[in-house]
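Convert to structure. Protein one:
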Amino acid sequence: MRWPKRVALALAVLLVVPATTGAVALRVGYAGTIEDGTRTRGRDAIWLGHAWVDGRKKDADLRAFARQIKGTGLRDLYVHAGPLEHDGTLPASRYSRAAWLIAAVHREIPGVRVHAWLGDRLATEGPAGLRLERAATRANVVRSAAQVLDDGFDGVHFDLEPLHSGDSHYLTLLDALGALTKARGKPLSIAAHQIDPLPGQHAVAGALTGHPKWWSQAYFAEVARRVDQIAVMSYDTAMPLESLYGGYVAQQTTLALEVTPKSTDLLMGLPFYHENKLGHREKAETVAAAVRGTRLALGRTDLHREHFGVALYVDFAAEESDWTAYREGWGCTTSASCDQG
């Protein structure tokens, strides 16, 4: 019976020691003093649900939203205008009230930009979905982007998942989209997967589960070089404690800062929603923890970086406590605006 016991002990050591070491590292990363100057740069964003473009939201809703964000650093609205069809096309009927929203935002909240948030499930881990390896599909996606810009959106934002690290077809698509948006003078932004917390972790996760959750840091850099904004989906981390989640966000912020061009807006995602499931614990993944982790990493890594902000996910699930944590921790342009919020 010695050998089974020894094998079991060895496996336990292999699993427990790295996890324990990682937890300690994250907790240490969450400690320390927040540097002065790690506040909003006025480049923040929020993901908004489909109700804003399908007729459910009205003028009164927009006026209330304008009051909600007054004095904060929010500049960009990622408004869900999709989803795309699996062939990359986009029926205009899916965003029938977009013209009202764009005009109302420009009137009520001058300086705020309205982006069309487009996306679809990719056929990377199952038979159904959008296939980036098909040139015709990529061409349709570019035409869909041109379509929403023609219809008055100030920019286009893509969220395609699950997108595996190293996908060259995605880079090809971004090159084509970038050529379109630059010619139009409009911003191109994307929602990005998290970066390997340990080198090669996406490959290990892919081999074990078929779902390589993370991107390599090198691939993240390739994507960041091709867009005007990159928003890291720094939530759904499975962290059990607030301190570990905050430390994880700090780590993700540092990894992203190291490879994102100075000219690209880097936005770290804040969890404006409340769920308890395998990959997300409401008590752990808080806005306050994410903001603290973001500020700690910004102060340590690139204190004076201007092209930086946070992205709030998502408006329809947010509670007032989330808005308060954002305003007080990060998002007020002045102390007076914090008091007004």
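Protein two, convert as well:
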Amino acid sequence: MTFVDEVKNAVTPRAALLVIGVLGLQLLFIASYVGALHKPKPTDVAFGVVAPQQMSQQLVTRLDELPGGPLDPRAVGDAAEARQQILNRDIDGALIVDPAGRTDTVLVASGGGTVLASSLEKILTGVEATQRRTVRTVDVAPASREDFDGLSSFYLVVGWCVGGYLCASILAISAGSKPANRQRAVIRTGVMALYSIAGGIGGAVIIGPILGALPGSVWGLAGLGALVVFAVGMITLALEALTGIVGIGLAVLIIVIAGNPSAGGAFPLPMLPDFWRAIGPALPPGAGTWVARSIAYFKGNAITGPLLVLSAWAVVGTAFTLLLSMRHRPETAPPGPAPTATAPGGSTLT
């Protein structure tokens, strides 16, 4: 047997295509993570300005014209409204000008990401210094001391996502990657639902009562976790039903390669490049991270949109999994030998 024949026996054309696909995923992983995270900088951060009417618009214009466009400033009525808008996650920070003194106040929310809060403080300190003014920083929604850099929400959601697509992958290949008929698809969906509930509760208990990394409602986080795991798991099952084992790679592409770096975990969304900032909220890791932080630090505000995103992934994944299963007829037993009967006198009839 020649060397070429040995290669053909060792690596089938199908295996070669899968290896090429894995190489593509590897390169996309590098490009996505490095592209999103190698040079974070705030851009168009929603920012409030509380100042006397005669200077409010002038200050908004000055902040809007800062080099690089780090802020998207808008006038806010008073300090109480600015605080409420931050807690509602409508803005990420605010400057409150003291017309009677030379020390102004910067409101931030490190619960939404300590890197962003620090960046806002640095930017406003520089701006105020040019006017010979100083600032003091007030954290309206501070991150837990056990939540370094506000990353616990992100890691929690990543764990749920990993569990979702790994469980779905195991279910998909447990019978030798057989296509899911209707009965098999219903069973896999039921198992995925039970696993999601267990994973959601387990993650919430670990991150809250056991480690003390996140405050907020344990049951709220548990419900979020169940939805994240189920959404990721069902979209993985749907992709596998559509494309076979390649669907597992497609799930990795959506969740890991595109979803994780755009989730606003390591760096909040306003610090990501435009492409990742645009896709992040529409993918499960980004939607889940936003809701987890809202539950932990923002009194559960601003979660309707992200929950609808996660629900859409879950519904679409479930619908496609069940619909695609209808393409396959139920498996039937192979035909056996013809039935026999015994005639009177002991002879056999067929």
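Residues 230 and 252 are 15 Å apart (CA to CA). The chain has twelve helices and seven strands.
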